[in-house]
Amino acid sequence: MRFPIILRWERSRRHRTRSICLLAGIALTAAIVSISAYTLTARHAPATPILGRETIEVTSDPSGASIKLDGRTSGRTPARIRVTSGDHAVELALSGHATVTRQVSVATGRTSVVVAQLWQRSATVTALRPPLPGATIRDARFLADGTIALDVTLPHNMGTEAWRIDAGGRITRVSLMPLPTTVLALGPDATSVAYLKGRSDKGPAGKPTYRELWVTSGTSRGARLYSLPTDTDHGLVDLSWAPDGRSLLVIASRRVFDGSTSRLLLIPADEGEPREVASVPAEVVSGSYNWSPADTGVAFLARHGDTVSLCAVRLNGSAFRYLADVGRTTGEPVGYAPISWSRDGGRVLYSAPDKPNSDGSPSPHRLYSDDLSGRPSARVASGVGQSPVWREDGHILALARAEAGKPPVLRSVDPAGAVRDIGVLPIGSGSFSVRWDVEHAQAIVAVRAPSSFASGNTLWLTRWTNGASK
């Protein structure tokens, strides 16, 4: 009985040993194959980005834009993306819209926020019309919230009114009664109205002049803020609110044998002491003002004879620059200064005609930058366009005519100098100037018919969004 048991035990042990050896060999072979495959795959596979504790929050208006972070696809807006600290490039793209690129610096342990307004390639263009029959729009400009302030002159010398157009296109009267003037301005708070009062026979011939500056809340005639000295030979002809509402720029002008001279007075809104910031031997073009951020400077157009010139001044008196002659006209010029200030107010970006063509045809407008130090202006890359403006991402926007007699196009110049046309504006082929509201992707374009210099401008509200931003 024991003998068969002993033989069966020894045979089973030998079989187990063989099985173990076989399994070990298979496992070793599989391990070698796996390691080799991993090595080859790792050698040719793209590097996996190292995620840090920092984040970038990206939103866009409209949402749904594709995101590229440092060239790598990273979802769609809105998104929260983990990154390492340091500098990153964020590119947003959406069908039918211009691409936006932002450079973002992310601090250790912090979250950086990117908010982008995506501009449509096809703009919505609407003619701005007076709110009353027989009335005319003397001036139109943007307030800080993207709404539009209108100065409306009534017919038959009935006075002037202030109106406001909100983001939805609704128009409302701000001044509850016509004011006895031809010159007023709605304040940045959309309730205060400044106007000139007290007719004067001094100042440029053919233009109404006044002696007093008044401010009202719209419910009454208001209070007098400033009056010209009795011994002056100037008359008040125009005014403009500083964007912060703390002061007003008032233009005092007087006649001379070959034209007029102008003084620029800065008057505090709290009844402080007026201060002259500049004097020019020319007529300041009404409504042409372009204020810098923080209200440290203002640019404007001035006219002597038929020459229209671009000027800029720092309000502390440290600099005045006669930048360029920008046009010639025998009537009222198209009146927005073709200039933009940098975000820190240290530089200006402007357009001016290139050297005149020998055949007398219009010369293309080039882009220039100036730090108001007195040094010559610098040409900005190869950019060609009019009425430029800096966008937050460092791109320059301008309008340009791709062909003579054709409607203008919206042109973009990136920080490296590359030029790209975004879309056509169907606003006619006459001379034009632009007042920008980049934050809300909109502009007011003033166009003059080329065959009628004596007629007024046609004002076009141009929006590259579905409406002003919320």
CATH architecture descriptor of the domain at 54-117: Sandwich
How many strands, what sense, and barrel or not for the largest sheet? 5 strands, antiparallel
Radius of gyration: 33 Å
The H-level CATH homologous superfamily of the domain at 54-117, spelled out, is: Carboxypeptidase-like, regulatory domain
The CATH topology of the domain at 54-117 is what? Answer: Immunoglobulin-like
- Report helical residue fraction: under 10%
Terminal CA distance reads 99 Å
Question: What do you see in this structure?
Answer:
The protein has 470 residues and is mainly beta. Strands 21, 22, 23, 24 and 25 form a five-stranded antiparallel sheet that branches. Strands 3-2-5-6 form a four-stranded antiparallel sheet, with no helix packed on it. β30 and β31 form a beta hairpin. The chain is 9% helix and 47% strand. Among the domains are: 45 residues; 64 residues, Immunoglobulin-like. The N terminus is likely disordered. The termini are far apart. The longest helix has 43 residues.
